[in-house]
Amino acid sequence: MNVVAKPELKSLDDTIRETIYRACLLLDDEKFMEWLALCAPDFSYRITTYSPEIRRPMTWYEQDVAGLKGMIEMLPKHNTDHGRLTRHVTVYAVDSDPARGEAKATSSFACYRTMLDGINSHIDSGETQLFLIGKYYDRFRIDEHGPHFIERNVFLDTRRLDKGSHYPI
Amino acid sequence: MTMLIERMSYDNGEAIPYVDSRIYSDRGIFEEEVEKIWKKVWLVAVHESELPEPLDFRTMTLAREPIVIVRGSDSKLRAFLNVCPHRGNLILRQPSGSLTVGEPSGNANHMTCMFHAWQFDCFGRCVDIPRAKAGYQDRLRKEDIALKQLPCEVAHGGFVWVSLNTKVGPLSEYIGPAFDIMREELDTEPLTIFHYHKAIIPSNYKLWHDTNSEFYHDYMHYFNRATSMQQKGYFERQYTAFPNGHCTVGSMEVKYDAYQGAQDRVLSFPGMPRNGWKMVDLFPGATYNIRGSSLRVDTMTPLGPDRVMIEFRGLGLKRDTPDEQAQRVRDHNTIWGPFGRNLHEDLLGITGQGVGMQPGSTPRRILHGRRENNTIHDEIGMRHFYKEWERRIGRSPNDPFPETQTAAE
Ligand code: FES
Ligand SMILES: [Fe+2]
């Protein structure tokens, strides 16, 4: 029996997983325009959560591609802290439908903030704090160029974000 | 500057008013504020739409006292101390819910202390003490026990106001005419909540109120520079001061489309021009802020001289369609959500002040001295707050410890 694995074509599910991981690397590196290149022109992005205080679902951020581009272009005009966000992601489930050229994926993520000037840089710079945890609910369209995000719902478990952020998660 | 600033009483109208940084950092002053201010006045607790049904409840902690607000079977809202009269346990533990759901150690429709299962009804009356007769004989009966009830009123846009002071006067007396500027927007028809989030910031609560009480810091917000400061009417916006430390800021028309990607607000409130903007700052720590399509209400819970929790609520009209509400949510969160353009900047501002004036740091002078005929960059709102603070605390904000060291320039 030949036990040496034959090189196989990547499955569609693997490609979806890779696309999600690549998106995280680009977001971690703050290469937002390259991140958007992984998204279809009709991509929609939302950050949502549920408030047990007011017992209602909430949408904390919602943009289409034009809105995201504008937001990214405006970042240098805004004040912010200069901590870096790092996402740790595990893709839990991929459901792809090659016949229809569509796929869905559910991933769990933790997003850490490595502080620079968040509070007092002399003391805090270099410290990493857990910023938030949640799930990515992604949808993809697949064509001859591969998968593109058509939807990302960042569902947050963490609801106390303290000073918040100007960046997509 | 040294020549202009003399040691004199706060805001006497001549020099550059300042406060001593220790009012933002001293532990003793913080404790005095809790006792002399936060436990004495009316505080905004929640919005009525957070507990719409009979037997809905909502919990919170005001000035370290656990409170529960319950909508009675008669639909009336009441506030109680959420502490068990038996051995002091917290009774309701979740932020909100319905008493119609039974607890493992208690019946539905009751507030049950999980510890020894004493049960209370929605009016705060004790309705069950397990083995009461066996343990207390006739020395204590459930009929003699009740949760401590606190003054509670619903007003000013359907907010639920509570005071820890059982001898407090009516809310209308405390507020006076401070809401006149917003009465039509708030009270023509019912409002509903669509947004809630909170932040804990290592800074003093008054620094957040100061931020909400001055617009000079619009230099920090690109969004406001583009859509407001460079627009007609901005520098004519007027501050008006009211008794008990409250103040308001008059309206202007914001040009949202001056910021790339932002749009004019389509929705509004009764009596509010589209794209209008009004504020009411309430002593000691709440702000109502209507910008076009959304009402934002900030409430603060001071946790220490260098720690504050701020809760942010967003509201629209109860009659909004789902699409209209979604539009208000988008408008609100572009600037005011945890990922909004302005709120993050404001919170960073007071975080930095928290570092600059941390407990034990050398006393410094913090300037409150801009005077521009009470218009938008005048610091009258802050000065008005500290006059009320001085009256209630019995210390001068610029010389809080006259017996010791004064603040350096
Ligand atoms: S402490 Fe509440 S029942 Fe004992
Ligand atoms: Fe601001």
Describe the structure.
The complex is a heterodimer of chains A (169) and B (409). Chain A has 169 residues and is α+β, with helices and mostly antiparallel strands. Chain A has one domain: Nuclear Transport Factor 2, Chain: A (Roll). Helix content of chain A is 21%, strand content 45%. Chain A is built from 4 helices and 6 strands. Chain A has helices at residues 12-28, 32-36, 65-74, 121-124, and strands at 39-51, 56-64, 84-97, 102-114, 128-143, 146-156. A 6-stranded mixed beta sheet of chain A has the order 2-1-6-5-4-3. The radius of gyration of chain A is 18 Å and the shape is globular. The model of chain A has no long low-confidence stretch (mean pLDDT 94). By secondary structure, chain B is α+β, with helices and mostly antiparallel strands. Chain B folds into 2 domains: 43-152, Rieske [2Fe-2S] iron-sulphur domain (Rieske Iron-sulfur Protein, 3-layer Sandwich); 177-393, Naphthalene 1,2-dioxygenase Alpha Subunit, Chain A, domain 1. Chain B is built from 9 helices and 20 strands. In chain B, the strands form 5 sheets. In chain B, strands 13-19-18-17-16-15-14 form a 7-stranded antiparallel beta sheet. In chain B, helix 7 (322-336) packs parallel to helix 8 (341-356). The radius of gyration of chain B is 23 Å and the shape is globular. The N and C termini of chain B lie close together (8 Å). The chains are: A alpha+beta (169), B alpha+beta (409). Chain A binds chain B through residues 47, 51-56, 58-62, 66-67, 70-71, 73-74, 77-81, 118-120, 159-166, and chain B through 49-50, 58, 94-96, 193-202, 220-223, 259-261, 326, 329-330, 333, 337-341, 343-345, 347-348, 351, 354-355. Fe (ii) ion binds next to helix 8 of chain B.
